[in-house]
Amino acid sequence: MLAESAPVRFRDPQIEMAHGAGGRASRKLVEGLFAPLLFGGAFGPLGDAAHVDINGTKVAITTDGFVVKPLSFPGGSIGELAVNGTVNDLAVSGARAEALVVTYVLEAGLPTPVLEAEVRAMAKAARDAGVRIAAGDTKVVEHGKADQMYVTTTGIGRLLHEVTIDPRSVRVGDRILLSGPIGDHGITILLARGELDLEADLRSDTRSVFPLVETLIRAAGPGIRWMRDPTRGGAATSLNELARDCGLGMVLFEGQIPVRDAVRGACELLGLDPLHIANEGQFLAVVSPEYVDAAINALNLAPGGSEAQVIGEVREQPAGTVLVTTLYGGSRVVDMLVGDPLPRIC
Amino acid sequence: MRYVDEFREPQLISKTAEEIRRLAGTERNYRMMEVCGGHTHAIYRFGLKDILPENIELIHGPGCPVCVLPMGRIDDGLSIAQQSNVIFAAFGDMMRVPGTQGSPFEHKARGMDVRIVYSPSDALKLARLNPAKHVMFFAIGFETTAPSTALTIMRAKAEGIRNFSVFCNHVTIIPAIRAILDSPDMRLDAFIGPGHVSTVIGCRPYEWIAQNERKPIVVSGFEPLDMLQSVVMLLRQLKAGEAKVENQYKRVVPWEGNRAALRAMAEVFELRPYFEWRGLGFISQSALRFNDKYAEWDAEQRFEVPGIRVTDPKAAQCGEVLKGVLKPHQCKLFGRECTPEHPIGALMVSSEGSCAAYHNYEHRKAAMVSLSSVA
Amino acid sequence: MCLAIPGKIVEIASDNQDSAVVDVVGVRRKIDLGLLQDDKPVPGDWVLIHVGFAMSKISEQDAADQMNTLRMLGEMHGTLQEVKGYGLEEVN
Questions:
Q1: How far apart (Å, rounded) are the C-alpha atoms in residues B121 and B264?
Q2: What residues in A contact C29, CB-CB < 8 Å?
């Protein structure tokens, strides 16, 4: 049934960069303007993908835009991000990506070899992810717009019936799992921009997480409550959204959150928190206690899953909040940021 | 991370916390002010309040250079950058601080050329790379940061780089501490002294606090063990009825300070007769400006600035929170009209502003039924 | 007010004595040594970095002393308790 539009609650007079950063400002825009107008009145928790019913068959569908600068960076390029990002959104909603369609918005003056390299990268990423690119569209805009190229991908996928993702199914005592180290992608991009006199041996973690998600589902399917790929806004944002959607507390153990040394060093130097940094090849999962051992063992044995860790658990308090605790009994609340994480000197 | 991880060792932290509980006892309350915003940030980041006994209260001081900047100064800086060939360069800390017409980021969205820099030298580099433009660096910070600005300006002069200027909002810490101690509503027992400012000014400038005001002050590092050890040292002084300046941060802070840094500052800066501090009013001899030798690089002398004083909305209690008289959540606007997304005052924007720290790190913890299940 | 991080000097620029590279767990950053003119660090030294400038050399000795003092905290108290048990005069 097509819903009637509901009233717009978004009051900011103009759009700012913060609205695209994945944090609080983004959430206000989505929930205050897009959702009421497009989804109508009472919309539930917004997930990474939507499941639509076509003649009795449920199909997962999702879309994502990629505006990364620079286009190419250690570990990948916009082409890979565009494929993996959409495949991952489908994966964490419990679906296997079957086909992608892609739109390219190209800037006049973009050198053809650059475009060709990106399309090659997309083709390879799609082959590696086992998904076909079925159709596409292209537009060209004037020189000075589109930062060389913007890419949007829309993906459809087949639901894996062994799992149901629903934040409302999360219970006190559930464990929070993370597939691997956080912060690699965001810091790599920051360094690749070249504005900082910082260098590190870091690569984007962009990859399809579907194989690991499938492994997790096979080992712990009935125990999986929720999954998400923490892209812009970082793990903190994803977990805050979950905390809010289920009304419980997400308590993380600081010593157990995997972070590479170089990411940690860069974050300390810039005054950033790895929990707020974007990832492109990781996912979070909430799993019931009965299944968590099987889940972690299966992940650790699977290719690319050796660094998966239990990083926390769900508790009643503090409700709707993410809390990080230390080994010595200290704790701090980790909130969503308003916009992008900003390096600080103070 | 060397020189970091050792000072975050959980067992040692627990042991030191135990020593603090033993020293603090239960018969009296202790009110200690950490002057520096970096210490405020550390307290929240490491959850230190959770492991200090209830009878030790940490009061947040005014050492947050973003928080004490009056809105009018942000307006002034942005007005210079309105000109089409000017690049506004500032640290990330400044980007969301509201002026009356919006923050630097909001101005950027409306077309102003606003860049984040990570060092004053980055701003100078921008000037070198953009000869057709003028780069204006919006400088903030206490004595920790001022020498770097000074050195950068000296280099600009030496290289003859003329398309560069600095809008200088550097302030000094001692007058701020004096203002706190002169404040009638203040009742403090001791100070946790600023660690990084002291790498420049040394420990001597604090001697009057101990000698004249009879308050102990310990210059402290920023890791959990540093701050906890400083509390131990303060408690020992208080229990012994002593009041002296001690240097807990010896590995980094020289008692005599950094002569080269002080020389650079003396070469470039002079003290303003007075300067307005948001929430603290006008304080004499508390801020720096360029002297005549460097007038050409002083944005206030190169450009017209409106210089309009902007007073905070009456309901905003930034001043009292800055002075530690009120806790953030006691301000009527906290969490309602004033949030991180729509900050009224800089204390809600700055990563070390007490309101932001409290909002982001703390207030939902307060709602928790019991913290004992956390550890 | 002052985010400052310890880093190890790994290289000093040959054409500019004030320019150096520090390493912080594998992250390399170019920094300015202009404020340490009176006590120039050499590769291998650790410095405290703030806004891209070295502010101070870090004293390994002082750091070690501090760790010792901290480690002795609990022990000292334990020792005191023991000594008290001997019935001798109060040691402070």
A1: 15
A2: 196-199, 269
CA atoms within 13 A on the CB side of A332: 22
H runs (alpha helix) in chain C:
60-85
Which pLDDT score, from 0 to 100, does residue B368 have? 61
**pLDDT digit string (tens) for A111-153?**
999 999 999 999 999 999 999 999 999 999 999 998 999 999 9
What is the rounded distance in angstroms from the CA atom of residue A279 to the CA atom of residue B221? Answer: 32
pTM score of the predicted model: 0.93
Fold (CATH) for C5-85: SH3 type barrels. (2.30.30)
Length reported for chain B: 375
Q: Are B195 and C32 an interchain contact pair (Cβ–Cβ within 8 Å)?
A: no
Chain-centroid distance of CA A269 in Å reads 25
Helix, strand, or coil here: A293? helix
Distance from CA of C52 to the nearest CA of A (A): 9
As for how many domains chain B has, the answer is 1
Decide if B99 is inside a domain.
yes
Q: Please report, for residues A222, B207, C5, the alpha-carbon distance to residue B240 in angstroms, rounded to integers and kept in the order given.
A: 63, 18, 34
Residue B318 belongs to a domain: yes
Q: Does A318 sit behind a cis peptide bond, omega within 30 degrees of 0 on the bond before it?
A: yes
Rounded Cα distance between C69 and B312, Å, is 47
pLDDT band, very low/low/confident/very high, at A194 (cuts 50, 70, 90):
confident
What is d(CA B139, CA A346) in angstroms, rounded to the nearest whole number?
12
Structure tokens at A21: 């950063």
User: Does residue B374 have a pLDDT over 50?
Assistant: no
C-beta atoms of A342 and B116 within 8 A: yes
Of B18, B63, B199, which is closest to C56 when you measure between CB atoms? B199
CA–CA distance, B307 with B80 (Å, rounded to integer): 11
Q: What are the counts of helices (DSSP H) followed by strands (DSSP E) for chain C? A: 1, 5
The domain containing residue B91 runs over which residues?
1-362
pLDDT at position B340 is: 84
Show me where the domains of chain C are located. Answer: 5-85
Token look-up 């190229």 returns A149
Position C90 pLDDT exceeds 50: no
> Could you tell me if residue B29 is inside a domain?
yes
Would residue B372 count as lying in a domain?
A: no
- Say how many CB pairs under 8 Å bridge B and C: 129
Selected residue of B35, B119, B228 to mutate for chain C interface (largest C Cβ count, 10 A) = B119
Residue of A nearest to C19 (CA): A197
Nearest CA in chain A to B107: A16
Question: From the CA of B367, how many Å to the nearest CA of chain C?
Answer: 29
Q: Cβ(B47)–Cβ(A326) under 8 Å?
A: yes
| Tokens, residue B231 | 């509390």
B321-347 tens-digit pLDDT: 887 788 888 999 998 889 888 888 878
Q: Chain C: nearest CA to B303, how far in angstroms?
A: 26
Taking only the tens place, the pLDDT of each residue in B214-268 is 999 999 999 999 999 999 999 999 999 999 999 999 999 999 999 999 999 999 9
For the stretch A233-269, what's the b/e string if a residue is b when 16 or more beta carbons lie within 10 angstroms of its beta carbon?
A: bbbbbbbbbbbbbbebbbbbbbeebbbbbbbbbbbbb
Q: How do the residues of chain B divide into helix, strand and coil, expressed in percent and rounded to 5?
A: 45, 20, 40
User: Is the CB of A266 less than 8 angstroms away from the CB of C27?
Assistant: yes
- The helices-and-strands tally (H runs, E runs) of chain A is 9, 15
Q: Are B224 and B12 in contact (CB under 8 A)?
A: no
Query: B193 and B174 in contact (C-beta within 8 Å)?
Result: no
Please state the separation of Cα B27 from the chain's center in Å.
Answer: 33
Q: pLDDT tens digits, residue range A289-325?
A: 999 999 999 999 999 999 999 999 999 999 999 999 9
pLDDT at B320 over 80: yes
**Mean pLDDT of the region C2-19:** 94
Strand B30-36 versus strand A322-325 pairing type: unpaired
